[in-house]
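re: that chain from earlier
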Amino acid sequence: MDDRFPDEIDETLWEEACRRAEAIREFLKRRSGDVISGDMALLAVELGVSRATAFRLIKLFRARGTVMSLVERKPGRPDGRRVLDEGREEIIRATIHRYHLTKNRPGISQLVREIRTSCLSAGLKPPHRRTIETRLQDIDLHQRAKRRGESEIVKRTMAVPGGLTASRPLQIVQVDHTKADIFVVDEETRLPIGRPWLTLAMDVCSRMVTGFYLTMDAPSRLSTSLCLLHSVFDKSPWLREREIIEPWPVAGLPETLHVDNGSDFRSRAFKRGCDDAGVAIDWRPPGEPRFGGHIERLIGTQMGRLHLLPGTTFSNPQELGEYDSKQHSALTLRELERYIALDIVGNYHQSIHRTLGRPPIAVWREQEGEIPLRLPQDRMQFWLTFLPEQERTLQPTGIHLFGMRYWSAALSADVGTANRRLLVKYDPRDMSRVFVRRPSGSFVEARYADLTLASVTLHEALAARRTLLAKGRREVNTRAIVGTAIEQRQLVDAAVKTTATVRRGRTSSSKTKVDDSGWGSLRGIDSSKPVAFDEDME
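^ sequence. v structure.
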């Protein structure tokens, strides 16, 4: 069997093989039964070979049916035989190791020059280029890829005799980040603002997505923490806010979080929060990407869905072609978040998983009643543990954070007595309330000083503030910031239609009315029910 490719065959040999193939095809067409000796003699004459060789060529062609099967192999040394002396072999090995098996490896021509120079310096005859290329082909592909940092080849050539498995829901939850293959646009201008980051969590046993977080900020302890909070708490209020009717029944603390070695997963605050809740953290072994295969395949699936949307960047330049991702971008961050949520609960969870042979939600439903799902004993403490924080001084007018003012009657007793800065916890997804740690050490909930204002995200608040500052406003107050954020939200219509209209400079004849009633609650926390604090009893 010839292990060469057609384009590697000498022109003369290839033409002869084509001539033989044509002759044999015609010979076999004319004879449907057994081949008699006289016929074979005529074919042998036509091919210019002996009758024995003609029989052998027919057998080869019948077995493979290709021209390559008839290419004549030139006589020479059997494969694996070496004719160089040990001195030149050693020079070739050392030079390949020193120059070729590195991340900044030279080209073949430079490698050949180095080997020839070394041989001449040692008084030896330089080897032929083909000899050096043969030695390169002898190198194990996996080892070569590891030395040269070719991660994709390493993945393809790595044996995977075992992997990460779980026997019950929430035994192992994998978390990872990816930069989404799509550009999103600004809520007001509908101009592209960049590619967001997606943090996903997945239950290894059922393959259910346990939660996710979408943000314009690079992966950090915050994005990991907010994804975990989304995973742990009931998602019914979160789904209602986004007008999604399909269920997402996953909730509860995982036994083990399986993550990579990124700094965001190794932050002290994140580790302590997990330890406190009895959640073990299992870091992926360095250089062992197969242990993250479950979540990586899920991320690949989700990115594939985004390739159908306007503004996609696809996965590689070949797919992108001349498509202008920024020019075609149309969805805002909020719209993309809802699209991803719809795809998870209405498509991925409901479709047959290739490995399970069943829909993930069916596997979850089957087992959730048999496994007692753990929830944090102190839900508020667990929630606050993973929220970001700032330090602020309590002023007579309240707590000022990101240009917005917050107040609680429980803080009245601390005005004028607390000279030190107080710790303020906030949820970037809902800035309608913050949690302030009093000098006594207990937390108190503080809401907008103006209770008539609607809830907005931190991203919306900061974007609105930048808009006001750009207009030259000297004073920025909470009502203006929140009012601007709400006005921006009301500008959002069907993404593609509105974006195209704004970019063409035409005024839309209709405006989309966005229901803001669902944005006032927090993920996993029922804000309609008051949270008891010691200060409320004073």
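The longest strand covers residues 172-179.
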